[in-house]
Write a structure and sequence with these properties.
8 strands; binds zinc ion; 16 helices; alpha/beta; about 350 residues; globular; about 50% helix; TIM Barrel; 8-stranded parallel beta sheet
Length: about 350
């Protein structure tokens, strides 16, 4: 059995995935029309070969999905959600959180179509819980201008199945003025939404402000803490979990290579983390590849197991569902490893 097949068989919890609606819709439409599928591998390689800073590379990476796409059509959106979840089943994912852009908050059909997309996938054999999140740029002037309306929408969606929000601070490479967004996040937390934030990705500048908020359960990326002893101490003290995406960090030049990724250093320091794909289409990656990258970066199989269970511990789910998910992941993980060991004749099993 190849390493890829082995890693595919392991159960996974993925908490850091952006929907990439425009790219997903373009691929779906090409498939519908029997045209060759858009090829993102060379896009990812071109971004990786760029000379710019990580933030410039990030802009270049996301450029193909800057314009709204066909995913704004409810029918197409539903099909895309179904497609995504079926694909994730194939990768071994058992719990998935999907981050949608802020414009979805104003689409009346958003959660209903999301649910129907998940039902389509379930009918096709997908056996996982899927939860929707919305990303927010709360420091952007145009967002602040319509903040009361946005918060009211999000509070309503919280009652209808939205699991959480993910704050994307702006600026993203300098200390952002996050104190002004604290009251809004407090309101959303009170409405029952989980709060995540992107920080510590392209550099460390956003991390102190996000940690100062004291409202964030999880940090998307956060890997820059590995290079700063004081920040690492603050991350540990805060108890936040980092949702780490190794391929993304390599393509954007946050780290020079998979081998030099600091994820094993973070594991050794005791920082809880999960592994995710970030923008799997544009980065041409998937969860088995991220687990393989984790091993290449120095993680042990036990670290991958811990990262998987951490996904259950910090999932934006009611606490009883978290406990059941943890149990499921642990049982399935150990069963998969046991099957592998007995197939290889290790352990003296019959
Ligand atoms: Zn992200």
């Amino acid at each position: 059995m190849t390493n890829g097949t082995r890693l595919r068989a392991l159960p996974k919890a993925e908490l850091h995935l952006h929907f990439e609606g425009t790219a997903r819709a373009a691929r779906w439409r090409a498939r519908q029309e029997g045209r060759p599928l858009p090829e993102w591998e060379s896009h990812a390689r071109a971004v990786q070969a760029m000379a710019g800073k990580p933030l410039d590379r990030l802009r270049a990476l996301l450029q193909p999905i800057e314009q709204p796409g066909e995913d704004a059509d409810p029918e197409v959106f539903e099909a895309l959600v179904g497609d995504l979840v079926v694909g994730k089943q194939d990768e071994g994912v058992r719990y998935l959180e999907v981050k949608f852009g802020p414009q979805r908050a104003f689409d009346d059909w958003f959660l209903e179509r999301f649910r129907r997309g998940c039902e389509r996938a379930a009918a096709a054999g997908a056996d996982m819980r899927v939860r929707p999140l919305i990303t927010l740029n709360l420091t952007r002037p145009e967002v602040r201008a319509s903040l009361p309306e946005l918060l009211a929408r999000l509070e309503k969606l919280a009652g209808e199945g939205l699991a959480g929000v993910d704050l994307i601070p702006e600026p993203y490479d300098r200390p952002p003025p996050l104190r002004i967004v604290a009251p809004a996040l407090e309101r959303l937390a009170l409405a029952g939404l989980g709060i995540a934030a992107h920080a510590g990705e392209v550099n460390a500048a956003t991390l102190p402000a996000v940690l100062d908020l004291g409202l964030v359960d999880r940090i998307s990326h956060g890997v820059q803490a590995a290079y700063d002893r004081r920040l690492l101490g603050r991350v540990l003290e805060s108890g936040v979990t980092l949702d780490i995406c190794i391929t993304s960090n390599v393509v954007l030049g946050v780290v020079a290579s998979v081998r030099e990724h600091p994820v094993s250093r973070l594991a050794l320091a005791g920082v809880p983390f999960t592994l995710g794909t970030d923008n799997p289409l544009l980065l041409a990656t998937d969860m088995p590849r991220e687990l393989a990258a984790g091993l290449e970066a120095g993680l042990l199989l036990g670290d991958l197991r811990a990262a998987t269970l951490a996904g259950a511990d910090v999932a934006f789910l009611p606490s009883e569902e978290r406990a059941a998910l943890r149990e499921r992941l642990a049982l399935e993980w150990d069963a998969a490893v046991w099957r592998e060991a007995t197939a290889a004749g290790v352990g003296g099993a019959p």
